[in-house]
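With this grant's support, we have settled on a layout for protein records. One resulting record is reproduced below.
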Amino acid sequence: MSITIKTPEEIEKMRIAGRLTAEVLDYIKAFVKPGVTTEELDRLCHDLMVNVQNSIPAPLNYAPPGHQPYPKSICSSINHQVCHGVPSRDRKLKQGDVVNLDITVIKDGWHGDSSRMFYVGEPGIQARRLSEITYQCMWKGIAQVRPGVHLGVVGAAIQKYAEANGYSVVREFCGHGIGRGFHEEPQVLHYGKATEGPVLEPGMTFTIEPMINAGRRDIRVLGDGWTVVTKDHSLSAQWEHTLLVTATGYEVLTLSAECPPPPAFISR
């Protein structure tokens, strides 16, 4: 599959999908509190997408080769869960938990994809630092995006910053092209060499979504076939945005007023 360059009309549709994705994350923040189940968070997000936005939750029944269909509308990954956590009525949020909620909306055939970290009450010092450094890692990658550079600059910047802060980068999962397809080319690695990968062009759209572990980078998949956890049970964090390569740099398609502000090293 080749990398698709989006037309101005297609980019506008992706802006809409990105805005709706951010809207879901804005909405669900108020419900992330002790005692709430992750299944309830899933239901609330599903209802907003389907009944208010008239959009489609992309994860629901998503079945890549070799996987059973994903059974829920969002992913909810708590503490040592790295990604693809399956919401459950048996998992109540507890004081001090940190949870990643990953939302992908389909609107008029176009995808928007974003995830954020949420604190359940007051997090521990280590959990807060990991979340903050992971957020900065994502923006270190975003800041590299512009026409004419190799995609590898994104992963190189993320890996350098994560490891300089004593953390490790998960390598089994990566960002991805996005558009009419949930997962398109290119693969966006969060590690590697700056001279590798395709050269960026205006009109490319992809996600940057580093998964950063407090301990070792090794992971395993639980028996549900989806939930990924750290092997050493260390904390993990992830942030994600959908990006457009513009003529002069980048545009973040999943920003909203409720997003945390970009780090101080972002000059825009």
